[in-house]
Design goal:
alpha+beta; seven-stranded mixed β-sheet; 443 residues; Phosphatidylinositol Phosphate Kinase II Beta; disordered C terminus; Phosphatidylinositol Phosphate Kinase Iibeta, Chain: A, domain 2
Length: 443
C-alpha cells in the first residue's frame, strides 16, 4: 500500500490549479478533481486540488517541497496508533513534517464539504491549533478496492518529548498503563497542570475558544488535544520550531506542575499542542451512542459521545483548568495544581453528599497522632458529593473529629444522623462559633 500511495502522490503533484496563489475566499464548493492511472494498476483521485493548494499556501508550504517530502524517500510507519480506536493507519514523511492517515469515506466527505469554511477559518485565525489538512486522495485498486488518505501537518514536528498525551476532557476509557513511549490520556494527566505566562495564557485560551466554536458550528465532536512535554531538567535543549504553521504549535515555554502525595512538584518544560481528529460529526450513529452511554456509564464517568455544543463547552472548561496563568498574583493565591488546592483548602464550609458513608478523606501527608491536635488547627478536607444534594456542612469538623480518634469527642460518641435534623451535640460545644452545626440524615 505504501508504494502505491507514494506513486500516487508523485502523480498528484501534477494536478492543475491556478498558478497565482489563491485566497481562501476563491475556493469553489464543488472543485473539479484530477485522476491519474497508477503504474502498478488502479487509479488515484486527487480531491479538490485547488482547495488544498490554498490551505498549503495559507500555511506557507511550498508545492514542490510538499510533494518532495512525501515522495523523495520511503514513508515511515504504517501502523495504527495505540491511542486511537479508529483503526486508521499512519505514515510519516521522513523529515517528520507531514502525517499520512487513512480515513473513512464519511470523514473524507466531511472534510471536502467543509473545506471552504475550514480554509476561511485558518485565514482569519493564523495561530489556530487545528490540524492543517494539506491534501486528500482516493486510491482505487485494479480489483475495485478503495483507500482514502489525507495528508496533514505533524503537530509535534520538531518536538523533543518525555511524555505525550491525547486529551479530550472526558473520563470514559481515558486511562492507560504508563509505559515509556506510550501515549497517555486524560486520567493519566489529571495530576498535571501547565503554567504559562499571562500573555500566552490569554492567547492560548482565545484560540481554543475560536477553534472549538468553529468545530461546534460544523457539528463536529470527538476531537482531541495532543500535548507533548519536554522536561528541561532531563533535556536542556529546548525544542521550539522556528517557523511553525501556528505560533502556538511551535513549542511553548511553561512549567509542568504535578500533584504528588507530599504536595506538588514543578518543572520547567517546553510543550507542543495541537487539535487533531476533527472529522467526526454528530450523526445518527453518535446520537444513538450518546443515548445508550448517558443512561448507563454516564452515571459513573464523563462520556465522550456528547452533542457538539456540550462537547465544545466541556473541552474549553477542562483546559481552562489545566492550563493556568503563572503570573505572580495568581501564584500568590495558592498552589499551582488543582489537586494541591483541594488538599490545602482552608475554607470551613464544603459541600458533601448526605449519602456518603465512608470516612472523611485525610489530606495527603496528614499523619495520625496519638495525641489529639487542637480542633482549631485541624486540617480541612473536601468531602465527596455522590448525589450532588448541595447540603452544606463543615469539613473541618469531620477532620477534627478524625484527628481525635474518629468516633469519640470528649468521651461522647460521634453521631452521624442521616435522618434526624438535630444538632450533633458534643461537636457544638467543642467548636468555635459561628460555624453551623452539622446535620446528618441517617443515624
Amino acid at each position: 500500500m505504501k508504494v502505491a500511495i507514494q506513486s500516487g502522490l508523485k502523480l498528484s503533484a501534477n494536478a492543475r490549479f491556478h498558478s497565482a496563489p489563491p485566497t481562501a475566499y476563491q475556493i469553489k464548493a464543488n472543485p473539479v478533481p484530477c485522476e491519474f492511472e497508477l503504474p502498478s494498476g488502479g487509479r488515484v483521485l486527487v480531491c479538490s486540488p485547488q482547495g488544498f493548494a490554498a490551505v498549503r499556501d495559507l500555511a506557507g508550504v511550498d508545492h514542490d517541497s510538499f510533494f518532495a517530502s512525501l515522495t523523495r524517500d520511503e514513508l515511515l510507519g504504517g501502523d495504527t496508533q495505540a491511542s486511537g480506536k479508529s483503526g486508521s493507519i499512519f505514515w510519516f514523511s521522513p523529515d517528520g513534517r507531514f502525517v499520512v492517515k487513512t480515513v473513512e469515506e464519511e470523514e473524507l466527505q466531511n472534510l471536502l464539504t467543509t473545506l471552504p469554511k475550514y480554509a476561511r477559518h485558518l485565514k482569519d485565525n493564523r495561530d489556530s491549533l487545528l490540524t492543517r489538512y494539506f491534501g486528500a486522495y482516493r486510491f482505487t485498486s485494479s480489483r475495485g478496492d478503495t483507500v482514502n488518505i489525507v495528508v496533514m501537518n505533524n503537530v509535534l514536528d520538531g518536538a523533543r518529548h518525555h511524555e505525550v498525551y491525547d486529551l479530550k476532557g472526558t473520563t470514559e476509557d481515558r486511562w492507560v498503563e504508563e509505559k515509556a513511549g506510550k501515549c497517555l490520556k486524560d486520567i493519566n494527566f489529571e495530576p498535571v497542570t501547565m503554567r504559562v505566562c499571562s500573555e500566552m495564557h490569554e492567547r492560548l485560551h482565545a484560540v481554543l475558544q475560536a477553534d472549538t466554536q468553529f468545530l461546534e458550528r460544523l457539528h463536529i465532536m470527538d476531537y482531541s488535544l495532543i500535548l507533548s512535554i519536554q522536561y528541561l531538567r532531563k533535556d536542556s535543549h529546548g525544542a521550539i520550531h522556528s517557523k511553525p504553521f501556528s505560533k502556538l504549535m511551535g513549542g511553548l515555554e511553561g512549567v509542568a506542575c504535578r500533584a504528588t502525595a507530599h504536595g506538588s512538584a514543578a518543572e520547567p518544560c517546553i510543550f507542543h499542542i495541537g487539535l487533531v481528529d476533527m472529522l467526526t460529526t454528530y450523526d445518527l450513529k453518535k446520537k444513538v451512542a450518546h443515548a445508550l452511554k448517558s443512561s448507563t456509564i454516564g452515571h459513573f464517568c464523563d462520556i465522550d459521545t456528547e452533542p457538539p455544543n456540550v462537547y465544545a463547552d466541556r473541552f474549553r472548561k477542562h483546559f481552562l483548568r489545566k492550563v493556568v496563568d503563572s503570573s505572580p498574583e495568581v501564584e500568590a493565591s495558592g498552589p499551582c495544581c488543582p489537586a494541591a488546592r483541594r488538599i490545602a483548602v482552608t475554607q470551613p464550609d464544603s459541600c458533601f453528599d448526605l449519602l456518603t458513608f465512608d470516612d472523611p478523606v485525610k489530606p495527603s501527608g496528614y499523619a495520625a497522632s496519638s495525641s489529639p491536635a487542637p480542633l482549631a488547627a485541624a486540617p480541612a478536607t473536601a468531602i465527596g458529593d455522590l448525589l450532588d444534594l448541595d447540603h452544606t456542612a463543615t469539613a473541618t469538623r469531620k477532620v477534627a473529629v478524625a484527628a481525635q480518634g474518629g468516633s469519640v469527642v470528649n468521651g461522647h460518641p460521634l453521631s452521624f444522623d442521616l435522618l434526624s435534623f438535630s444538632d450533633v451535640g458534643p461537636l457544638a460545644h467543642t467548636l468555635p462559633a459561628p460555624e453551623p452545626a452539622m446535620f446528618d440524615l441517617l443515624a
